[in-house]
Amino acid sequence: MKGDGFNLTYRYGLTRRQFIRLTSFSAAALAAGCATNPVTGRSQFMMVSEQEEIQIDRQYSPLQFSSDFGPAQEAALNTYVDGIGRSMAARGHRPHMPFSFRVVNATYINAYAFPGGSIACTRGILLTLNNEAELAALLGHEIGHVNARHTAEQLSKGQLTNIVVGGLSIIADVAAPGMGQVASALGGFGAGAFLASYSRDNERQADALGTEYMVQSGFSPDGMVGLMTMLNNLNQSRPSSIELMFATHPMSAERYETAVQAARTTFAGSRDLPLNRERYMDTTARLRAIKGAIEEMQKGDKAMGQKNFSQAETHYQAALKQAPDDYAGLVSMAKCQLMQKKHAEGARYARRAQAVFPQEAQGHHLGGFADLNLKEFDGALQSFRTSQRLLPQNPNTLFFIGYSYEGLGRRTEAAREYQRFLQQVRQGQYAQHAAQRLREWGYAR
Ligand SMILES: [Zn+2]
Description:
Number of domains: 2
Oligomer: single chain
Shape: globular
Strand order of the largest sheet: 3-5-4
Number of helices: 26
Radius of gyration: 22 Å
Largest sheet: 3 strands, mixed
Distance between the termini: 29 Å
Low-confidence stretches: 1-32, 161-182
Structural class: mainly alpha
Helix content: 55-70%
Strand content: under 5%
Number of strands: 5
Bound molecules: zinc ion
Mean pLDDT: 84
C-alpha cells in the first residue's frame, strides 16, 4: 500500500529527462527539434515526441477532467459524444492516437483537447448547440488541434512552460485569477489551469480540419456555420461563462466568414448532408431539462470568481432546488461553504457529493479539507487517501495526507508524505510548510 500513489504519479509524470528537455532553452535541446507534421507533411519545429504528447495527456487531462467535476454521469450522453468523436477521429490524419471523448459536468462554455487525444466538452456548451452537425464541428475542431499537434507546437515554442514548470500549486493562481485562488486554497486547481492557448493560425487550421472531418463523416458543413454563429453571438454578449473559451480559443468574425465561404465553395456539394437536429435534441433532453439549474451554477461561479460568496450561495441553492443530486452543484456549494469558513456545512455538502458520484475525487478532497478544519484528522486522512487513489496525478493530496498525519501526531508518516510532496512541488505555501516541518523534525537541514 505505502507509496502506491507516489509511484503512480511518477510513472504518469514527466521523467526528469523529459522535464529538462521541455523546460530547457539551451541550444542542445533546441537542436533536437524537427518533425514532419502529420497534417501538412511539412517539417515543423518540434521538441515533443508523440510518446511525450501521450504522457503529458495522461498526466494533466485527469486533473482537468476532475476540476470540471468529472464526466457527466448520464452514460447515454457520453456514449453519444464519444461515438461521434471516435468515428471522426478514425477518418482523420492521426487515427492511431488514443482518442477519447466525454462530456464533463462543468457548466461554463468550452471544449478542449489534450495532445494525446483526450477531448472534452462541457455541459454548458452542449446546451448552446442546436444539432449533431454543430457538435461534430466542435469535436472536429478539437481533433484538428490534436492532429496538427498544436499543443506540442506551443510547448516547443516555450508558450506553455507554465504547465510543467514552477510547481503545480502556483499555476492555478496564474492561469485563472479568481476561481484559481478559490480552487488552490482548497488544494484543487483553477478552471482551465491545464488548457493550452492556441494562436489564431492554430484556430484557422483547426476550423479547416474540423470542417473536412465532419463532412467526411457525413455531416453538412452548415454545422460549422451554426457553431461559428453561436460563438459569434456569445462573443458579442460576453457572458462570464465563456471567458475561458475565448482565452483558449481566440475568436473573430473572420472565422464565421471563413465557415460560410467554405460551405458555399469547397463543400457546396455536401450541404444536403444531414444536421440531425432531432437526434441531438432527443439525446440532450435530460440535460436541457435542467437548463435553469445550469444557468444558476454559471451565475454562482461568476459570483465565486468575484469572491461574493453569499451571492454565490444563493445561486447554488437555487440550482440545487431544481437539481438536488447534481454533483457539480453539490461540490460548488461545498466549496462556497468552505470559503465562508462554514466547515460543518461544507462537510455536509461534500458528503452528499461523494454519495452521488463516489468515483470522482473532488467530493472526497473537499470532505477531507472540511474535516481538517474541524480537526477530525482520522476522517480527513480517509478522505484524502480516497482522493489520492482516484486522482493520483494531484500532488497536493500528498501534502494534505501529510498534514492529516501531522494532526494525528504521527510524525514519521507525516514526514514521509511531505518528502514525497516536495519531490513534485517546490514552490508555494504548502511546499514552505512541508519543508519547514522537515527541518524542525530533523529530516532536512
Ligand atoms: Zn480551438
